[in-house]
Amino acid sequence: MICVPVSRSAVVIALLLAGGCSSSPQPRYYTLASGQGPEKTEMANSSGAAYAVAVGPVSVPAVVDRPQFVIQVAPSRVALLEDQRWAEPLNSSIPRAIASDLAKLLGVSVVIFPQDSLVDVKYRVAIEIRNFVSVPGEAATVEASWTVYGPNDSVKRGLSVASEPTKEAGYDALAAAHGRALMRVSRDVAAAIQSAEAGG
């Protein structure tokens, strides 16, 4: 058997490389916080409205309906970030955020559809998220087509496109920008419901 001498530095380098390959960054998890600020309640009836709203169904594009952050790196190319993830699926966190926003904007009870009973629900909001674009350090953009179903088969439809700058670098800022963009969608929906309540 032939023994080949190996330098101590070569052994150290090999161990460092092996250690680097065996460890990977721990993923960070983010939530879709609803929009913040006094604008949330400026549309609400101070005495509270005597009706309820249901949010759902809400559909999300398959390309972003996954745990990882999907960021736009070119007009026709995206990247999945394994170490930056949503704490819950977007198809459940988006309706939750919009329901929270509507409850505060309108001053009403808001539930997530479907549920066992919609007896007391006056309006139901169906939403199709057409685009959910994330560009770190630049902006978060949400394009949503929505339909408000009211009493007596009344229907109001709209398309909201909201782009919010991230204000700073980092993925916390990107998640927060998506929350603000969803708030703008919620404001459009709330305005449609208030118009229906006013007979418009």
Task: Give an overview in words.
The chain is an alpha/beta fold. It has a single domain (27-197), classed as ABC-type transport auxiliary lipoprotein component (Rossmann fold, 3-Layer(aba) Sandwich). The chain contains three helices and eight strands. The strands form two sheets. A five-stranded mixed β-sheet has the order 5-2-6-7-8, with helices on one face. Strand 7 and strand 8 (155-165) form a beta hairpin. Helix 2 (90-106) crosses helix 3 (171-197). The longest helix is centred in the last third of the chain and has 27 residues, at 171-197. The chain is elongated and about 60 Å long. Residues 9-16 and 37-42 have low confidence and may be disordered.
Query: What can be said about the biggest beta sheet?
Result: 5 strands, mixed
Beta-strand percent range: 25-35%
Query: Which secondary-structure class do the elements indicate?
Result: alpha/beta
* Spatial ordering of strands, largest sheet: 5-2-6-7-8
- The level 1 CATH classification is Alpha Beta
User: What CATH architecture label applies?
Assistant: 3-Layer(aba) Sandwich
What is the β-strand count?
8
- The geometry reads as elongated
**What is the CA–CA distance across the termini?**
92 Å
Estimated helix fraction: 25-40%
Query: How many independent structural domains?
Result: 1
Residue-averaged pLDDT: 84
Q: Order of helices and strands, N to C?
A: HEEEEHEEEEH
Number of helices: 3
C-alpha Rg (nearest Å): 23 Å
